[in-house]
Design goal:
Layout (H helix, E strand, L loop, with lengths): L15 H12 L5 H15 L4 E8 L4 E8 L5 H7 L5 H12 L5 E4 L9 H9 L4 E9 L2 E12 L3 H5 L2 H29 L3 H6 L4 H11 L4 H8 L3 H14 L5 H10 L19
Antiparallel strand pairs: 1-2, 1-5, 3-4, 4-5
Helix pairs in contact: 1-2, 1-7, 2-12, 9-11, 9-12, 10-11
Length: 280
């Protein structure tokens, strides 16, 4: 994904106000996780260019804050684990910094992760090209320490992203609303008919095709995937065509979104620490 050093140009010649209106309107149609992913990669990325989005929502039945990671660049597995776990020092640090900012968007430099225990996460973030992140969230009314949702955006052009805090402030209600809706709908869908491994195998997506899907998610070309897997670009092209047919997708982006919806690329959500269940 390309970025622009001029924050005013991040909407690809769109007027920012019009782009925000379009993003808000389109957010109302988001119901499923794969739709949220497509929305962040299209409407939202025009206003907040990013290659990493971490979205957290408090689950009252589980009494815990659960996180989902959306990334379009390769990340160290250790970093992925830290991003998906509310107990990790990295996530706790970012949430604490946001609370220190009194619930305002906070731009946090990766270099600030100076604690020795955060060295691995810091190094992995820097290796991925993320010099900083922009964070924001929603807390319960009158209870700022009780976070309802928390969002982290990282771009390989961190200077531009850091300058867009005011846009994130305007977009937050729509991001929060869309993500909460996704959580509610996904819970209902899982409750009615949780996908079984055998049901996923019906589509015939092989392990090799899953590998290729993971590379497609990172935006790699057929030639780049071929070099990674030690096969020919023509073989990769044939695999991609089969993937599109099996997932009933018109293009690569739709195939990746559908694969995410079917949890073909997902790892289990890690458990997180419970918090007191206050009434009201």
């Amino acid at each position: 994904m390309t970025t622009n050093n001029n924050p005013a140009a991040t909407t690809s010649q769109d007027d920012p106000v019009e782009a925000i209106v379009r993003a808000a309107e389109s957010a109302l149609t988001v119901r499923r996780r794969y739709q949220f992913f497509v929305w962040t990669q299209s409407y939202l990325s025009r206003l907040l260019p990013h290659q990493l989005a971490v979205c957290g929502s408090y689950d009252r039945s589980a009494r815990e804050l659960l996180f989902d990671v959306f990334n379009s660049v390769s990340l160290d597995p250790v970093l992925m684990d830290a991003l998906g776990d509310n107990r990790s020092l990295l996530m706790q640090h970012w949430q604490a910094r946001w609370l220190e900012a009194r619930g305002r968007p906070a731009a946090i430099a990766t270099a600030d992760l100076a604690f020795a225990s955060l060295g691995t996460a810091r190094d992995a973030l820097l290796a991925a090209g993320f010099d900083g992140v922009l964070v924001h969230g929603v807390s319960r009314p009158q209870r700022p320490q009780e976070i309802e949702s928390f969002f982290i955006f990282a771009s390989q052009d961190s200077t531009t992203l850091a300058a867009l805090g005011s846009r994130l402030e305007l977009l937050l209600p729509h991001i929060h609303g869309a993500w909460q809706r996704v959580q509610a709908v996904e819970r209902d869908v899982v409750g009615i008919s949780a996908p079984q491994p055998s049901a996923i195998r019906v589509g015939g997506v092989t392990q090799r095709e899953r590998e290729i899907l993971s590379w497609l998610r990172e935006g790699k070309s057929n030639q780049q995937i071929a070099e990674e897997l030690g096969i020919s670009a023509l073989t990769v092209k044939n695999h991609v065509q089969k993937i599109l047919r099996k997932l009933n997708a018109a293009n690569r982006a739709q195939a990746v979104a559908q694969a995410m919806s079917l949890q073909l690329l997902d790892r289990p959500v890690l458990s997180v620490l419970p918090r007191p269940n206050h009434a009201g």
